[in-house]
Every structure is written in structure tokens, then in C-alpha cells.
Amino acid sequence: MYYVFIGKKQFLLLATDYANADAYSRRLSVREEHLTRARVAKEKGFIIAGGAILAPELNVEGSAEGTMVGSLIIFEAENEEQIRKEIEQDPYVINKVWERYEIWPFKM
Q1: Cα separation, 80 vs 44, whole angstroms
Q2: 62: region left, alpha or beta (phi > 0 left; psi from -120 to 50 alpha)
Q3: Read out DSSP for the chain?
Q4: Which residue ranges form the domains of the chain, and what is each CATH number?
Q5: Whose CA is closest to 69, among 85, 47, 49, 51?
Q6: Which of 1, 28, 73, 75 is spaced 20 to 30 Å from 85 by Cα?
């Protein structure tokens, strides 16, 4: 038996933060705005899951888990371009938190 999936596909976004001295403070300054957008996208089914990538060896401001140094997000979208359009409007891109990101086809 063969299955044909029509419509939306899953994609994984892997983003890494800038590594300069004020990168972490930039992340924190726009984090709530970024998370608000992410919650809305999750409610609409555009985001499946996501979270911060942690560097345990970097311990800024007493974080027991480690410092946030990037993000991983799983999307469900028609195509990669739909994701890129949204990401380019994200506060982490606009405010130079994410230095670079990659989008990969993905399957959960």
C-alpha cells in the first residue's frame, strides 16, 4: 500500500544566534514578542513544536540549564517559501538574534 500526502509538509528550522557580546541581551529583549508570535502560529497549526537550543557550558545570568544559543522549530506548511516569509518577519531575525538559519524537509 502506498500513501500520497497532499498539501502540507513538515519542515525543521535550525537557527543559530550571533555570538557577539550583546547577542544574549538582544535575545532576551525581544523574546516575549517572539514567543507571542510563536504561540499564535502554533494555535493555527503552522508550528508543531519548538524551543531554544542550550549551551550548558555557557551559563549566563545563573541559568541552570545553560544559555540559549539558537532555536529549533518544526513547521507544517505548504512549502519552504511560506516559512521563509514568516521567519523574515520574526523579531529574532529583525533584531539580529539569529545569525543564520536553515530549513530542512522533515518528518515526525
Answers
A1: 17
A2: left
A3: ------S-EEEEEEEEE--STTHHHHHHHHHHHHHHHHHHHHHTTSEEEEEEEEETT--GGG-SS-EEEEEEEEEEES-HHHHHHHHTTSHHHHTT-EEEEEEEEE--
A4: 9-106 (3.30.70.1060)
A5: 51
A6: 28
Reply yes or no on whether the pLDDT at 56 is more than 50.
Answer: yes
User: 38-42, 61-65, 101-105: lowest mean pLDDT where?
Assistant: 61-65
Cβ distance 70 to 16 under 8 Å?
yes
Residues 104 and 11: their CA atoms lie apart, in Å, by 5
> pTM for the complete prediction?
0.85
The residue whose grid cell reads 500520497 is 4
Grid cell for residue 24? 544574549
